[in-house]
Write a structure and sequence with these properties.
It is built from 14 helices and no strands. The chain is an all-alpha fold. The longest helix has 38 residues. The N terminus is likely disordered.
Length: 309
């Protein structure tokens, strides 16, 4: 399964004088929302709970990989005590309380962002090294060298190697789901979403191959190490759930009325994994083009993905 997390950007808030007008140069909506959350007297997770938002969704929004909805902006403004206009456009007056909090906590926030940025750097390096060398060939020293840091710092974030593999799996899983979300937002037709789903599975680029490599290694590791099975199961269930949801949407739209959606979802996910393994192991009979053709037929005869003509 091609697997998703956009790279964390680093940004230290520049405090304004109390009552000062804020102009459009004050960054993006995500930048301004991030400053409001950082200035609050609660953690980011607690802030998410206060506004009734999933912590992961808020984290993605603050990184700029998920668009904030109008009701979410209103909730952030309410809890953060800022005008909605400030969040949406960067204009308006910044409240005194926020300006003081930003000034008093700038050093603390910078340190936190540095730590988050370092963890993200280590995570990305770990995931890529595991993908290209294999989990058993990657040493902590290799990760430290790739990040220009110490082995102690790497151990701090990932004390055990199975934790590094689990983190790499989740890293690529998040990146996959972010990509799918972007693809699905571009279309309103469920059958077209299934076509996009097929395209996202194809190991067409080096990044795709890295994602698949970690995914396949995680299956093998989970087979041999029970402690890894829970995270593997969770990632697979999340992925299969997307396929199942699309099939059921098709049925609600009048397609595949007599089909078993569970069976169709299992057929597709099993076929995807099997074909990708053939691709990555260098099977002469399998190519990206051949894999695409087989996946387009995965839901036949109930759902036709091939375009007429």
């Amino acid at each position: 399964m091609g697997l998703a997390m956009a790279k964390e950007t680093r940004m230290t808030a520049t405090p304004h004088h109390a009552g000062e007008d804020v102009g459009d140069g004050d960054g993006s909506v995500a930048d301004r929302a991030r400053r409001v959350v950082q200035a609050a007297d609660v953690s980011q997770r607690e802030f998410a709970e206060l506004i009734g938002m999933d912590p992961t969704a808020l984290s993605k929004a603050l990184r700029g990989t998920r668009r904030l909805q109008e009701h979410e902006l209103a909730a952030i403004a309410r809890v953060g005590k800022v005008p909605v206009r400030y969040l949406a456009t960067g204009s308006g007056r910044e409240p005194v309380a926020l300006a003081r909090a930003a000034a008093a906590g700038s050093r603390r926030r910078a340190e936190a962002l540095d730590a988050d940025a370092r963890r993200t750097q280590i995570l990305e390096a770990t995931a890529q090294l595991i993908a290209r060398r294999g989990i058993h060939a990657v040493r902590v020293a290799d990760i430290a060298r790739a990040c220009g840091t110490s082995t102690g710092t790497v151990h701090y974030h990932f004390p055990a190697k199975d934790g590094a593999l689990r983190a790499a799996l989740l890293f690529y899983a998040d990146r996959l789901h972010d990509r799918l979300e972007r693809e699905f937002q571009q279309v309103g037709d469920t059958v077209e979403m299934l076509r996009r789903l097929v395209e996202v599975q194809l190991p067409s680029s080096d990044e795709d191959i890295d994602e698949w490599s970690v995914w396949i290694q995680s299956w093998t590791a989970a087979m041999l190490e029970p402690s890894l099975r829970e995270s593997q199961r969770a990632v697979y269930s999340r992925w299969r759930g997307i396929v199942l949801d699309l099939v059921r949407r098709c049925q609600r739209e009048g397609l595949a009325p007599g089909a078993d959606p569970e069976a169709l979802a299992s057929r597709f996910t099993g076929l995807v994994d099997g074909l990708a393994i053939q691709m990555l192991s260098g099977s002469a009979e399998m190519s990206v083009e051949r894999m695409r053709e087989l996946l387009l037929d995965a839901f036949e005869p109930h759902i036709t993905l091939r375009r007429p003509g």
